[in-house]
Every structure is written in C-alpha cells, then in structure tokens.
Automatic annotation (TrEMBL):
Record GO biological process: DNA damage response
Natural source organism: Fusarium oligoseptatum
Signal peptide interval: none
Every Protein kinase domain range: 36-297
InterPro entries found in the cross-reference section: Kinase-like_dom_sf (IPR011009), Prot_kinase_dom (IPR000719), Ser/Thr_kinase_AS (IPR008271), Ser_Thr_kinase (IPR053235)
MF (Gene Ontology): ATP binding; protein serine/threonine kinase activity
Identification of the protein by name: Protein kinase domain-containing protein
SUPFAM superfamilies listed in its UniProt record: Protein kinase-like (PK-like) (SSF56112)
GO terms under cellular component: cytoplasm
PROSITE patterns in UniProt: PROTEIN_KINASE_DOM, PROTEIN_KINASE_ST
Amino acid sequence: MEDDQLIQQWELEVKEINDRFTCHPSQQRWSSDEKWERLEKLGRGGYGEVWLQQCTTGPRVGDLRAVKEIPKDFRQSSEDGHAEVRHQELSALIKFSHQQYRDYFVSSFGWFQTPEALFITMQYFPHGDLQCHITKALPNDEACTIIRQILQGLSFMHQNKFAHRDLKPANILVQEKGPNWWVKLSDFGCSKEATTLQTTVGTPPYWAPELCHIFTRADEDSHDWIENRTYSFQVDIWSAGVIAFRLVTGVLPFGSNLHSELYCYTFHGVVDEQIPRRSSHCGPGFGASLDLNILPP
C-alpha cells in the first residue's frame, strides 16, 4: 500500500499528448505550461521504447529528458504479468530516485499515462550506456572504478530487498566518461522485490548458473531449492562479475554455448584459470577483492 501511494504521488498531470508533443499544465499560476517535443528514439529497453524529449515552453525551456514508453497491451509470456512488471519498474525507479541514491541510479522526474501506454520520465545521458564504451579492455583502475559503483548500487538495491535481474553494460548509463568514470544503474523492467525469485529473466551472457537451472549439490540440498527452485539476488553479483571480466579483458567469459560452458564451469573447472569461481556465492569474495565492504551477508 505504501508503494502504491508513493507511485501515485509521482504521477504527472498531462494536458495534451500526441506523437510529437507532451504538454504538462503549469504547477504555478505565473508560469506557462510545459511543452515537451519528441526528438528521436534513443533505444529500446526492457518492455518499452525510450525517446528523447526537449522542453520548448515553460520554466525548463531547453532541458532534455528521456521518456520510456511502455505499451499497456504488451503481454509477457512469463508468470510476472505486465501490470506487475510496470508496478515493479515504477516502484524501483521512484525508490532509487531519492536524494541518497542519485549518485548510483538513474533518476526519474515522474510518470504519466494514456489509455494505450505508460510513460516514465528519466534523466538523459548524452554519453549513452556502458556498452558503447567497452569495445576493448579498460585499464584495471578504470574497471575497478566502474565495478565499485555498480556494486554499491547493487548493495543499495539488495538492502531494500530489490533484485535487478538484468544487469548488463547496456543497462548501465554513463554520466562521465573515463578515466574518471561515473556510471549509474538503469532499466528496472526486470527488477523485483526479492521475496521469491523464480522467473528466468535477463540477458543470457550475464545469467548466473541458477538461471540456466544449473545447481550445485549444496543448492539441491537446500529447502528453498527443493520446494520452489528459487534463486537469490546474488545472481546480480554474478552478472557484475561477468561485467568485470569483460571490462578487464574485452571479451565475455562464456561463448554462444552458454549452458554447456556454465555446466563445465560449475562442476568440472574446464575453463581458463583467469575466470573467477563459478558460483554466485562468490559475491562477497569478489567485493572484498575490490576492497569493498558493502555487500549483504
């Protein structure tokens, strides 16, 4: 109920909307209405397209924002259901738009809707996402700077009982480029409050073994696995490890035959020795290797 009330407080009033303009009524009687012009498509995130808009009238003339458009008639094949996905994304985005989290997460300015779609307004990042900047390996110190920020963001998410579940370079936006990198986590379309995590979501090269239904004997002996075959938000730490490997080597640790390679990696160690241990439970150890003490126990 508290989340629902918070989401409602962030809803923006819309006076007019069409394919070119969005108009928000003035919140102050001496100001003109805010009109935002759609400029170009920035890309496609989980469950929706992202557009660039610029304010053409009102107190924020010249400002830019990104707007994610999520069609309401979209239907997932997964058990989550589209309405829940929209609620999860809004809940996470609003939660982590608060001041204490803004250094690590993309901020939202609010949301609005039509009968056909939900629109989420967000910061615009001219430098794009991390995927655009890692065509080759980065120096170790730069890679560590990026990973520290990712892990701190994940720590905040996990402390608030959220799992991201689709951590990858395309979902990490660049506020400042290297060598002094500043990155922020984005795209909470797959995020979920980590009560019971069962659905396989995310992007395959960054999947933990659990998401490929590869479990160790210790996993199989656990009550949760026997009852529900659930996984924990430590799958996010695995994804962060894959990103770290890619940052320092320029390549992904696993190829196109992901399931077989993960299986060999988990049970037989038939991989390059440079790759870290093959269980998501290496998360705290990975954090310690970066001189961090921010991960949940």
